[in-house]
Amino acid sequence: MCVDGAADMGKSSARTHGQENERRIKANNREYNAQFRYANNYIKTSKYSIITFLPLNLLEQFQRLANFYFLCLLVLQLIPAISSLTPITTAIPLIGVLALTAVKDAYDDFQRHQNDSQVNHRRAKTLRNGKLVEEKWASVQVGDVIRLENDQFVAADILLLSSSEPNGLCYIETAELDGETNLKCRQCLLETAAMGQDDAQLGAFDGEIVCETPNNLLNKFEGTLSWRNQHFSLDNDKILLRGCVLRNTSWCYGVVVFAGKDTKLMQNSGKTKFKRTSIDRLLNFLIIGIVFFLLSMCVFCTVACGVWEWLVGRYFQVYLPWDTLVPADPTWGAVIIALLVFFSYAIVMNTVVPISLYVSVEVIRFAQSFLINWDEKMYYEKTGTAAKARTTTLNEELGQIQYIFSDKTGTLTQNIMTFNKCSIAGVCYGDVVDETTGETLEINERRGRARGGAGRARGRGAGLLLDETAQGRSTPAAMRPASSEPLDFSFNPEYEPEFKFFDPTLLDAVKRGDSHVHDFFRLLALCHTVMPDQKNGRLEYQAQSPDESALVSAARNFGFVFRERSPNSITIEVMGNTEVYELLCILDFNNVRKRMSVILRKDGEIRLYTKGADNVIYERLKATKGDVKSKTQEHLNKFAGEGLRTLALAWRPLEERGFAEWKRRHHAAALALHDRDEQLDAIYEEIETDLLLLGVTAIEDKLQDGVPETIANLSMAGIKIWVLTGDKQETAINIGYSCQLLTDDMAEVFVVDGASYDDVNKQLAKCRDSIRVVNTFMPHGPRPSDAKRDEEPNGAVSGRGANVKLNAPAVSVVTFRWEHNSLAHSNEYVSGGAHTSEPHEHANDDSNGFAIVVNGHSLVHCLHPKLEEKFLEVVLHCRSVICCRVTPLQKAMVVELIKKSRKAVTLAIGDGANDVSMIKAAHIGVGISGQEGMQAVLASDYSIAQFRFLQRLLLVHGRWSYYRMCKFLRYFFYKNFAFTVCHFWFAFFCGFSAQTVFDEMFISVYNLFYTSLPVLALGVFEQDVSDATSLQFPKLYAPGHTSQLFNKTEFIKSTLHGCFTSLVLFLIPYGTYNDGLAADGRVLSDHMLLGSVVATILIIDNTTQIALDTTYWTVFNHVTIWGSLVSYFVLDYFYNYAIGGPYVGSLTVALTQPTFWFTAVLTMIILMVPVVSWRLASARARGTLAERLRLRQRWRGAAPAPRTPSARRARRSVRSGYAFAHQEGFGRLITSGKIMRRIPHADAAFSALASLPGKFHARPSSPPPEPKAPTQNLDTVDL
């Protein structure tokens, strides 16, 4: 490891006030390292401190256009010459808005402070003056030597100095970084490993490290260590990164190289962006439009005032004297008055720009966040974790999601592998057959019943797989009794209680000594790189991949216990008898071989045992007669069709002389200086031939509960789901089939794995051509490019799409009737069709779907500016997209690409630190409180405990939040325009003098008291349908995709309605009270009386309007709606009588006159009849799905729960890849003895990899698919 003649890196500072170009560190020397001002290990995600909160928060708030606008208005109102209103009318609402927003921001930042504190206060052991002291993570600095212990998170990026393992090895889990729970090996320099755990030596370590600057490359590190006049090269294998977890290593020491924000984990986290919803962006645009509308009214009134003053006003100066500022000249006087009136009307009509809108929006979001937090149906009892809204500003965006980007490991899967089934000598084991029907029961059903009967049969159609004879099963008995309980392995003292297997025939074969079965389990117990360990007197296994651990564990439970290994031997225990095998050679795994082998000698007999991808093993089998190979192939197809991960097992005997010759050539190849790997592969190929097939294994990578159903429902809601994972391609494809992202019904599943730009370009071109061919000659549905324009108002498809016939009729999700014309009654939210914003996308018809799998190294080229468009053209035609072996930053780049190109609302969900950049890049980030730490949760906007809760978060809370916010905004703008524009109509009758219709106090508190609570109750509690109905009918979610419920058109409708209301509100009372007399002869035509009448009818109208808008009545709605009406009269009397307001007696006089009641009734009739008539007509002619559901439920009772789409479908018979580690295995370390401490104890973990066969292989015959998932149908909803 010593680097002779390495150049001296110099002693001058590598980092000054300018750019850092290298990093220079001296261990245990804080004074030296302090001069470079390296980042400390303190993490800060909060925005404010106690001192900076007020100025920074006010600065942020006044960056909002509306707040700054009202601040300017407040300044103008302080000028007496132009203000006809007291500054209080603006000051009260502005202060209220600023205060409430500040409270909300303070609460959010307090939560961030708590999370930061939790991370920074983790404990780390640091060497100080040769002694270990316990410090906070935040106190760790670059150059410190720290001690880590088993199962502890790595506090910073450290250079490994020594460890408890032989030769300075240690093992880490990198789930936080790349999503993989496979153990990875790191090894320190042998020179530093000699220090062991001697604190005195480690405390005196004064090595100088010169290395690269902070960067985000997880798999690369370059540096040099200078120590004791020697220079040692450093690479990534000697670095432990922050976020990793130390595994199977009692302790290790390291020197901190990067800390805090400089660590590679934080460098990959991406920048925290201020997230705003699409409604926020629309509101900003609308506010600008409202300002221009206000200015246009002010300009009109200015011109009209100038004309009136010049024509009429100058002759009435005796009664209406001009201000002293105004020139005596009539022309100039009129001009100056008109200019002053411009500002006066800007003040009078300022309420058309609603300052209370923002505070109302924030209050509604705040309350909705608590509804999410308190939802017991998103509470995970197993871990005691509830859903949490970590931000209060994005709730309605949850109702507009178009793309979901999901991690795989820990998000879709539990990352728990279970030995599920196997095939041995042509006999399939693992299925449980119903003794009455002969049909194979689904494994999930069996497990559910075995665990207390919770998973009762869901009906014969949903719970049964195809029968065993159709699956090619060859069994001693055609119909074996079904076992409702897992097998009892207690006869074996080394059995594991958590191991479950249900087929008794396999255990019977073991007990009666079936030679094929014994050879099968011997291979599983011998052919691996698992390390045994004794913990608390219990034998435990440490494996680099969970698959390998599951196989060795299965052999253990069936009585073939792997006991110990040495560099030259493997010891197993077979049914209580110890067997020792001499280990002659390990033929290690690599990505090309996709298999591993061991060569063993026992009792003079040499055998080669092999396991690997089935296509690789089958190519090397010896030609034999018999049907074992064909039957095993049928079982392979069956296992792959069930989404299981398969692995083929084989063996061959070797002659002593032939092996000796092969071993000599193998030794020469192992010592070759050039092309060593290629020579070894060729040597391996020579001996791994003429194999004899033993059987195949089938492992289940368990999905989280409810994942297929969740994905099916989200897809029915029109949401596209992409999986972005750091796992290997074969594993990602398997999970895709398991959770129904990939199905056998798809037209094609493309794989893009080219290593160069040209290869990727060609593959994308082929994918595009294939899509065009399929869409041209096999049109299972409307062409994507024509999908939008071919839609007719009734939801049917016209033009070229009119001749489309589906291959099979769809089943109504409610009635379960086969509907042959279901396409003509597509389940759009409105009968006019849910106009998709993405013309390239298909309906959710499996038969018309494509899927694409993109590898990480190919994705680099796909994201190249020259290939971006072609890549997008392909993926947007695909129903499912899976990107594997991607880095954290690549995940974020994919999200950014869709955001930029499609202008779509995106959601990213993950559970590890490798998902943080994706979570921050998406419009909505969701963290899963899983097994990989809290980094994803800390960076997220919402956190949930299980992926299945995502459908409730979106389809229920997201949809409700969007629906409520849209309804709130429509009503809010309506009431504001109805209130404000009354001043404009009055201007025509007051000489455009900026005289107000209403009392100043009424203007001040109209939005704050009289109308605020009803609309807040609407925004918090309103529901159009129940949560159960929202989940039963995912298509209810569709309006959010195209902003149907609130957009520029809806805004204009609301404002026009408000303007019409204001016109009626003003003109009818004005016409009534103009020159009006009471019965006793008193004059009623005074300004204050008119203002009181108009204000009262306005409040009555607002109350009636919101009562019509409310479909879900709670006690809060009743109290706020009717209470606000009552409070108007109470507060008016209190203000005018108790405080002595100017309008004292006006309302009393009005209420005592029949004229008022006649006017009020007439005005309300004129206002309400058109509204009610329009709504009834619209509901009858163009009723939404929600309206139809409410109507039919009202008349026919509650809707029956529709059948959940089948979670298991026939799949294309693609081999399930075995999850070896992606990098080369560590067989050499085993045989060299470097990882051995002493026998029988060893502490390490290694593995190997297999993958699918070729990408475009002809499809083997597979069982006929089940009927498609039920299709929802508007016109067949039968409740």
TrEMBL record:
<feature type="domain" description="P-type ATPase N-terminal">
    <location>
        <begin position="25"/>
        <end position="90"/>
    </location>
</feature>
<dbReference type="GO" id="GO:0005548">
    <property type="term" value="F:phospholipid transporter activity"/>
</dbReference>
<feature type="binding site">
    <location>
        <position position="409"/>
    </location>
    <ligand>
        <name>Mg(2+)</name>
    </ligand>
</feature>
<keyword id="KW-0256">Endoplasmic reticulum</keyword>
<dbReference type="GO" id="GO:0005802">
    <property type="term" value="C:trans-Golgi network"/>
</dbReference>
<dbReference type="InterPro" id="IPR023214">
    <property type="entry name" value="HAD_sf"/>
</dbReference>
<protein>
    <recommendedName>
        <fullName>Phospholipid-transporting ATPase</fullName>
        <ecNumber>7.6.2.1</ecNumber>
    </recommendedName>
</protein>
<dbReference type="GO" id="GO:0005524">
    <property type="term" value="F:ATP binding"/>
</dbReference>
<feature type="binding site">
    <location>
        <position position="408"/>
    </location>
    <ligand>
        <name>ATP</name>
    </ligand>
</feature>
<feature type="region of interest" description="Disordered">
    <location>
        <begin position="1255"/>
        <end position="1279"/>
    </location>
</feature>
<feature type="binding site">
    <location>
        <position position="915"/>
    </location>
    <ligand>
        <name>Mg(2+)</name>
    </ligand>
</feature>
<feature type="transmembrane region" description="Helical">
    <location>
        <begin position="1051"/>
        <end position="1071"/>
    </location>
</feature>
<dbReference type="GO" id="GO:0016887">
    <property type="term" value="F:ATP hydrolysis activity"/>
</dbReference>
<dbReference type="InterPro" id="IPR018303">
    <property type="entry name" value="ATPase_P-typ_P_site"/>
</dbReference>
<dbReference type="InterPro" id="IPR001757">
    <property type="entry name" value="P_typ_ATPase"/>
</dbReference>
<dbReference type="InterPro" id="IPR023299">
    <property type="entry name" value="ATPase_P-typ_cyto_dom_N"/>
</dbReference>
<dbReference type="GO" id="GO:0007030">
    <property type="term" value="P:Golgi organization"/>
</dbReference>
<feature type="binding site">
    <location>
        <position position="911"/>
    </location>
    <ligand>
        <name>Mg(2+)</name>
    </ligand>
</feature>
<dbReference type="InterPro" id="IPR006539">
    <property type="entry name" value="P-type_ATPase_IV"/>
</dbReference>
<keyword id="KW-1133">Transmembrane helix</keyword>
<feature type="transmembrane region" description="Helical">
    <location>
        <begin position="972"/>
        <end position="995"/>
    </location>
</feature>
<feature type="active site" description="4-aspartylphosphate intermediate">
    <location>
        <position position="407"/>
    </location>
</feature>
<feature type="binding site">
    <location>
        <position position="548"/>
    </location>
    <ligand>
        <name>ATP</name>
    </ligand>
</feature>
<feature type="binding site">
    <location>
        <position position="914"/>
    </location>
    <ligand>
        <name>ATP</name>
    </ligand>
</feature>
<feature type="binding site">
    <location>
        <position position="891"/>
    </location>
    <ligand>
        <name>ATP</name>
    </ligand>
</feature>
<dbReference type="InterPro" id="IPR008250">
    <property type="entry name" value="ATPase_P-typ_transduc_dom_A_sf"/>
</dbReference>
<feature type="region of interest" description="Disordered">
    <location>
        <begin position="1"/>
        <end position="23"/>
    </location>
</feature>
<feature type="binding site">
    <location>
        <position position="611"/>
    </location>
    <ligand>
        <name>ATP</name>
    </ligand>
</feature>
<dbReference type="Pfam" id="PF16209">
    <property type="entry name" value="PhoLip_ATPase_N"/>
</dbReference>
<dbReference type="GO" id="GO:0140327">
    <property type="term" value="F:flippase activity"/>
</dbReference>
<feature type="region of interest" description="Disordered">
    <location>
        <begin position="778"/>
        <end position="801"/>
    </location>
</feature>
<feature type="transmembrane region" description="Helical">
    <location>
        <begin position="88"/>
        <end position="107"/>
    </location>
</feature>
<feature type="binding site">
    <location>
        <position position="409"/>
    </location>
    <ligand>
        <name>ATP</name>
    </ligand>
</feature>
<dbReference type="Pfam" id="PF16212">
    <property type="entry name" value="PhoLip_ATPase_C"/>
</dbReference>
<dbReference type="Pfam" id="PF13246">
    <property type="entry name" value="Cation_ATPase"/>
</dbReference>
<keyword id="KW-1278">Translocase</keyword>
<feature type="binding site">
    <location>
        <position position="589"/>
    </location>
    <ligand>
        <name>ATP</name>
    </ligand>
</feature>
<feature type="compositionally biased region" description="Basic and acidic residues">
    <location>
        <begin position="783"/>
        <end position="792"/>
    </location>
</feature>
<keyword id="KW-0812">Transmembrane</keyword>
<feature type="transmembrane region" description="Helical">
    <location>
        <begin position="1001"/>
        <end position="1021"/>
    </location>
</feature>
<feature type="binding site">
    <location>
        <position position="885"/>
    </location>
    <ligand>
        <name>ATP</name>
    </ligand>
</feature>
<dbReference type="GO" id="GO:0005783">
    <property type="term" value="C:endoplasmic reticulum"/>
</dbReference>
